[in-house]
Amino acid sequence: MGNLKVTTPSDREITMTRVFDAPRTLVFDAHTKPELVKQWLLGPPGWSMPVCEMDVRVGGTYRWVWRHDRNGTEMGMGGVYREIVQPERLVTTERFDEAWYPGEGLNTLVLVERGGRTTLTQTMRYESREARDAVLRSGMEKGVAASYDRLADLLASTPARK
Asked: What is the value of pTM for the model shown?
């Protein structure tokens, strides 16, 4: 538990998997409630999320802006909720304000619970191999690992709900 696994199942996809010691309802909430998302989806240390707008319904949009606390640099992105199956699946589009890879990404989050532990699998599909490779080169894995460590801490401090 606690280790992020990153694979490339096809030349346009990146899949990330991690197990959390929490029921999937809590993991789902942490992905769909802005007050929780702002606490963990921050990438490497030193970033905050001053904008976290989420209209979690099919066809609804989200908008996130991160700010580097030291130098004020901002990075924003947003997308549309394409599919929501609570508490097991979220499908969203992704496009950064200042695109650093071509096109739009499609993210599919799947949560599977066994024995009170939840396996999170996030698959990101890009428009081309070049786009996927740009994301892999970006250092995204380090930021995701840091975010998921924060998520694990948040889940551990959240009273379990059925």
From this structure: 0.93
